[in-house]
Amino acid sequence: MRHGARGNRARQRIALMTVVVACLVWQQPAVSAPPLPKEPDSVPMVTIPAGSFLMGNPEGTGRPDEWPQRSVYLDAFAIDEVEVTNERYLTFVATTGHRNPPNPYRTGPLTSIKGIEQLPVVQTTWYDAKAYCSWAKKRFPTEAEWEKAARGTDGRRFPWGNDPASLKFANFEREWEDDKTLYPVGSLPEGDSPYGVKDMAGNAREWVADWYDADYYKHAPDRNPQGPDKKGVVRSIRGGSWHSPVADITTSARGRGGFALQTHGTGFRCARSLDGTGTSQ
């Protein structure tokens, strides 16, 4: 009897402890691990290391607004591997309520066209592009950053080197053929830059941060140039488009356009500083 009573008391204590533990578990639900930060724009970015590169062209080569050639030092930065696509841009529109870009292919909204998701978005103004990069927690590349990402450090004429331009390297010198004109981003890997940045020549020319000044290189700083201080309506555009001649798709060629410019050949990509100031412009 005595052993039986002891066993009953032991079982009762175990049962009571089980109830207490169960209550504690019920009162203290598990805490989930904090979610990993999610990029609004998860496109791969290419890191361009800090250092100097040759920017512009020697006098007599290229156009006068590319003169003189000089050595420019840039801090490290990252740049989108490819141009912003229709798919990515329309995600931004759906998320933010920003206006839809015009449909360059046919009537109706851009969302009604199938098969264009991976084509670079075009018909974006400078302000549209800036709004996208800000939403993505990025910024525009400067002209200098764009040129280094396209050219590397050896002063090459094209992103792929000094071989003559051809359609195996870039989409250029073509007429408009609706949704067959622009190529899906990254379609021509032989035209990649030394860093692996894609489509830096042709396809869609790209907005950058700088104001345009034809004489800027003559007095620009040789360390992290941010473009001229002048104001106005004209910003720099780089890279050339599907319609551009060879002279416009070189790594040093400089284009320009007003804030409100919208064309079938103008798109953009974003960049980010690597020192904690990635979204300032």
Distance between the termini: 86 Å
**Element order: H for helix, E for strand:** HEEEEHHHEEEEE
Helical segment count:
4
The strand order across the widest sheet is 7-6-5-8
The major pleated sheet works out as:
4 strands, mixed
- Rounded Rg: 27 Å
Q: Output mean pLDDT.
A: 88
Defining traits:
281 residues; alpha+beta; 3-stranded antiparallel sheet; 4 helices; 9 strands; 20% helix; 14% strand; globular; disordered N terminus
Protein architecture, described:
The protein is of the alpha+beta class and about 280 residues long. It has helices spanning about 1-25, 85-95, 125-135, 145-150, and strands at about 45-50, 50-55, 70-75, 75-80, 205-210, 235-240, 255-260, 265, 270-275. Mean pLDDT is about 90; it is low at about 1-10 and about 15-35.
